[in-house]
Design a protein that fits this description.
heterodimer; A: 237 residues; mainly alpha; 9 helices; B: 188 residues; alpha/beta; Rossmann fold; 5-stranded parallel β-sheet; two-stranded antiparallel ribbon; 15% strand; globular
Chain lengths: 237, 188
C-alpha cells in the first residue's frame, strides 16, 4: 500500500470544524480521565457543604442575606473553576501533545475549542452548584430572570478569563500558583459585577436594562476578542 | 547549536540530517515544521512555486518525532478520527482501519493508546503524520522503538513519499541515513 492512498478525500478545514474537533476530543478525554471534573466538583461540593453547615441561613440576618449569599455563591463558583480549568492547556503540555496540536490546528481554533470545553465544564458546575446552594441556604430570589442571566453571563466571562490565563501558564513551572495569581485581578471586576447582579436579583431590584448583565456580556466579548488576537502569540512560542 | 546552515530540498528528494547528540537535529526539524522560530535565519517553503507563510506551513507538513505524542486516553482509531477532523480530511472508518492494517495495528485499533507499546505508538505516529498527504514529511529518528517489520514500514513510507513530496530525516542510524539521497552533518 502506498502512503496516502487510503484517504479518499482531503478537504480544507474551517475554524469551526477544527474547534469542534478539539472540543469533542477534550470532552471525550475528560469523560475517560475526569481530571478537571473531579477537581472542580470535589472543591465545589466540599465548599458548599462547609458553607451551608457553618453559616446556614439561620446565622445571617435577613437584611444581609442577599449580599452575603451572592458573595458566597460567587466565591464557590470562582474558586471551583480555578481549581480545575487550568488543566485545559496544562494537560496538553504534560502529555506532550502540544506540538502535534500546533501542527494540526490553527491557534484561534485551538483557543475556541478549549474555551467551549471550559464553558461546558462551567455550565455543568453551575447546574449542580447554583440549585444546591439555593436549596441548602434557603436563598430567596425575587427576580429569577435577572439571577439566571447573571449566573449564565458571569459563567461565560469566568470561562473566557480562565481559558486565556490557562494558555499563558501552561508552559510555566509554578503553574498552580501562577494560575490563581494571574486569574484573580483579571476576574475581580467580573466577580464584583456578578455579586452585585445576584444581590439585585435577590432583593428584586429589577432596574432598567440589567446593567450588571450587560457589563458581564461586554466583559466576555472583550475578553474573547482580545484572546483571539493574543492567543496566537502565546501559542507560537 | 548549529549555525551557517543553508540547504534546499526538492520534490521527490530525501534529505538526512546527522550529527552528535545535542547538535540540533531535532531542533532543525522543529524549525522547518514551524514549531520553533530560529534565532537567526529563515525557512522558505514553496508549494507549486507559491511561498507558504510559516503560520500556514502545518497544512503541508507531516511530522514524526519522539517528543510528539498522541492522545493516550483515546483509542488509536479515535486518534485517527480526531486528526482527520481537525485537519479537514474526510474521516472514513473503513479506510482508517485499512491504514491500521497496513501498519499492523488493526487488531488493536479499539485499544486506548496508553496500553500501546512504544513501537506500536511509533507506528501510529507514522499513520498520523501521513493522514493529510503532506508535501513535506519530517521524520525525527523514525526507527525509534521499531522492530524489523516496523522498519520495513518506514522504508515503504519514505519510498512512497518520493511521489508525494519530500522527506527530511534526522538520525544517526546508518540504515535510516541510507534511505537518503543526501546527508547533512551538523557536527562538521
Amino acid at each position: 500500500m502506498k502512503n496516502g492512498s487510503w484517504i479518499t478525500q482531503t478537504g480544507s478545514s474551517t475554524y469551526l470544524s477544527e474547534a469542534t474537533a478539539i472540543w469533542l476530543r477534550d470532552l471525550r478525554g475528560e469523560f475517560r480521565t475526569r481530571y478537571a471534573v473531579n477537581a472542580i466538583l470535589m472543591f465545589a461540593v466540599t465548599t458548599l457543604v462547609a458553607v451551608s453547615f457553618s453559616i446556614g441561613s439561620f446565622r445571617i440576618g435577613e437584611a444581609e442575606q442577599p449580599f452575603l449569599y451572592a458573595v458566597l455563591l460567587w466565591i464557590i463558583l470562582v474558586f471551583s473553576a480555578l481549581s480545575g480549568l487550568s488543566r485545559s492547556f496544562v494537560k496538553e503540555e504534560e502529555a506532550g501533545t502540544m506540538d502535534v496540536l500546533k501542527l494540526s490546528a490553527r491557534p484561534q481554533a485551538v483557543f475556541l475549542g478549549k474555551l467551549w470545553f471550559n464553558l461546558t465544564l462551567l455550565g455543568a458546575l453551575e447546574l449542580i452548584v447554583v440549585p444546591s446552594f439555593i436549596l441548602l441556604m434557603n436563598y430567596e430570589i425575587k427576580h429569577p430572570g435577572l439571577f439566571t442571566a447573571m449566573v449564565i453571563t458571569g459563567g461565560f466571562g469566568l470561562g473566557a478569563g480562565t481559558t486565556i490565563v490557562a494558555a499563558m501558564i501552561a508552559q510555566a513551572s509554578a503553574r498552580g500558583a501562577l494560575f490563581s495569581v494571574l486569574s484573580f485581578p483579571l476576574l475581580l471586576p467580573l466577580m464584583i459585577t456578578a455579586i452585585k447582579g445576584c444581590e439585585k436579583a435577590a432583593v428584586g431590584m429589577n432596574g432598567t436594562g440589567w446593567p450588571e448583565v450587560r457589563i458581564a456580556v461586554a466583559y466576555s466579548t472583550v475578553m474573547i476578542i482580545m484572546s483571539l488576537f493574543l492567543f496566537p502569540l502565546i501559542w507560537d512560542e | 547549536m548549529f549555525k551557517d546552515i543553508s540547504f534546499e530540498v526538492h520534490p521527490g528528494e530525501v534529505l538526512a540530517v546527522a550529527g552528535w547528540n545535542g547538535s540540533g537535529k531535532s531542533t532543525l526539524l522543529r524549525i522547518i515544521a514551524g514549531l520553533v522560530r530560529p534565532s537567526r535565519g529563515q525557512v522558505d517553503m514553496f508549494v507549486e512555486d507559491r511561498p507558504i507563510p510559516r503560520e500556514s506551513r502545518r497544512r503541508f507538513v507531516g511530522m514524526v518525532a519522539p517528543a510528539l505524542a498522541l492522545y493516550d486516553e483515546l483509542t488509536a482509531l479515535e486518534n485517527m478520527e480526531f486528526f482527520c477532523r481537525v485537519r479537514g480530511v474526510s474521516y472514513n472508518r473503513k479506510s482508517c482501519l485499512s491504514m491500521m492494517q497496513w501498519v499492523g495495528l488493526a487488531e488493536n485499533a479499539g485499544k486506548q493508546c496508553r496500553n500501546y507499546s512504544s513501537g506500536m505508538k511509533q507506528r501510529l505516529k507514522l499513520v498520523q503524520a501521513l493522514l493529510h498527504k503532506p508535501q513535506l514529511l519530517l521524520l525525527d529518528e523514525p526507527g525509534c522503538n521499531l522492530d524489523a517489520k516496523g522498519m520495513k514500514i518506514v522504508e515503504e513510507v519514505i519510498s512512497a513519499q518520493r511521489q508525494l513530496g519530500m522527506t527530511v530525516i534526522a538520525s544517526n542510524e546508518k540504515r535510516e541515513l541510507d534511505y537518503a539521497d543526501r546527508v547533512i552533518n551538523l557536527s562538521e
